[in-house]
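Here comes a specimen:
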Amino acid sequence: MQLLVTSHMFPTEDRPIAGLFVCKQAEALAAAGADVSVLAPQYPGVSGAAPEGLALPVSYPPLPWGPGLLPSKARVVRASRVYRRHLEARLEGERRPDVVHAHYGFPDGAVSATVAARAGVPCVVTLHGTDVHIQLARAVTGRLVRGALRRADRIVLVSPHMAAELAHTDPGLARRSVVIPNGYDATAACAGDYVRGRRGLLYVGRLAPEKGLDRLLHAYAATGLADPLTIVGSGPEEEALRELAARLALGGRVLFAGALPNAEAVEAMAGARALVLASDREGMPSVAVEALACGTPVVATAVGGLPHLLRDRRVGILVPPGDVDALAAALREVLLRDWAHAAIRRLSGVLSWDEVAGRLIDVYREALAERGGGHG
């Protein structure tokens, strides 16, 4: 099966962990036998080169836009036209794919569904969170994106929460959707290897306003815990968060470790007593999946797919978003409880990327069969 993956969120030389979950999934599909290539258009300011060690064939054509600017009809149309030309060239070339799999509603899903439908190629679109919560909810651009996505053969959602939200936003799209969550790398995440000597609390992710890290620091300060809090990641809030940690007199109890390669971040999760997420919104965060696969309990706000992921209290603790007192209480509890680390992966029901790839290949085959194509 010739598979073309399209996503503007994909690792590059200067952003090696951007869209890493898309890359991991594509690598798993290749390992499962699909002949995978990637079209990863990039907005200005991002390197158009692949990170070292990437085995998949990837092209990084540039897209017009403007960093930090909200979508407008003019920007959407302009970027879509350029994206469409690159995709049309791929579908008209010698290596015409059997299936196109796009990640994110805009620009990837909207453009890919439209172009693939015209070319008679099945298209699957995965929505990851902000595309459902924000993009599809906008008055003008949301209507344009929803209209384009109706041409996709299947919509993949990464959590049941997103499925419920899409059913409310667009019942027609929801009827052609299937829930397949993000996975974990079974070769890197080991529940048994790091059970002993677990130490401290850990956050892994972007240092951005919607991640609620200011509330996490306030909650951590309120506990008076001696256990350290390590913050892994980078982003626009880093300086403000460092200043807040200093004002709260957290001293050496909070470590800002910067961005780490995925393998090192997973090892940090496996060595932590708990992963903590205080986000205002999420889809199905890969870091939570990876932590649970390591046997590490998760403390998280009840947003997006996290309530489904932490539905068994033996794998983590949910708190209301924005509630600093509840978060502080949960941090104390997670350190006091006796967790069955070796059982957390099983109890949470998380899937490996290999298992995710198997489910996706079934979806591709269904889409091909409905269009009368082969099963490659």
Notes: Residues 12 and 62 are 13 Å apart (CA to CA). The two ends are 4 Å apart (CA to CA). The chain has a mean pLDDT of 90. Residues 73-92 form the longest helix (20 residues).
